[in-house]
Model the fold of this input.
Amino acid sequence: MTTGSDPLGRGVAAIYDGTPGAFVWRTYDVPAIRAGERLVRVLGATVCGSDLHTWEGRRTCATPTILGHEIVGEIVASAPDCPVHDRRGRPLAIGSRVTWGIVAACGTCEPCRRHLPQKCRRGVKYGHERAEGRHLLTGGLAGHCLLAPGTEVVALDDALPLAVACPASCATATVAGAVAACGPLAGAVVGILGCGMLGLTAAAMVSAGGGTVIAVDPEPRRCARALRFGATRAVSPDDCAGAAAAIAPGGLDAVIEVSGRNAAFMAGVESLRVGGTIVLVGSVSPAPDVPVSLEGIVRRCLTIRGLHNYRPEDLVAAVEFLERHHRTHPFAELVSAWFPLGEVAAAFRAAADPAHVRVGITPEPFLPSETTDAPP
Done:
């Protein structure tokens, strides 16, 4: 495998500098790799909700930065000490089509030792780092991404469409972790609160595992879509209690909350059976506290589990799930528009439209001298 010692050319990146609703362009020299690193050519990236919220100024991050963490790429250089196979034993060679974990973890700090590598104290988080030094190319809105030591890299089947594969490294892997936290699925009745990308993926995973899904969302179109992703019932929040009582009179075995709404959490807790579990995924922004009956949690033996990002094994589970089931449900349709990198601001504006579950961006074709994609 190449050590990346030869000049690899130049590329262009879309930089978010902290100005809401704008990007600036930056050209870069493609770096030679160092020990433990890989260089990938970005094939495509999808716009996650956190990317959009950052660009809109509703979420803070280190700037300047290259956004984008739902990425698929092709390995173009690997250091000699990099693993030559992924966890599944599949080759990681020049030309391999891959995705990778959202956090490159050191493996030795306290969170890593406690099996929370996504909270690594020395971690590199793709799509979130300040764009400087070895962390310049850590986002998907560029021609290349430099993978730091400790990055979990997973080879992808060639048959897996780009639209299906890109969300694996955020949405799908996070959901895989949430579904695993629910416990055994066979015969379980699971409520999924929110029918966006995460909720739809959760419905499909729970259904594939033998569970019954009640999907809840205030938007009728999103409810209708959930039925195509394995939900048995898809109802509005007002109808949630009735649907749950009809299907699971004793209460739901588990709830996955992906909407981030306080009211959804409260309804989810109330809907659980004795010994049930609620997994919180969507509450990633500050919100008012909620009143919870501690006595009720104790007497009903409930489990409340928070999940932020995911572990490496969740990414592997996500990829394997998509490889097996992406044709069972219309995952490829969820990325409903693709834009070249030169039209990145237009892509983000489209991503803000609720009609799109995901929007994709590909670096090709890109001609920086001919691109005048101005901020709105």
Observations:
- The domain at 10-161+326-370 is CATH 3.90.180.10 (Quinone Oxidoreductase; Chain A, domain 1).
- The longest helix spans residues 312-325.
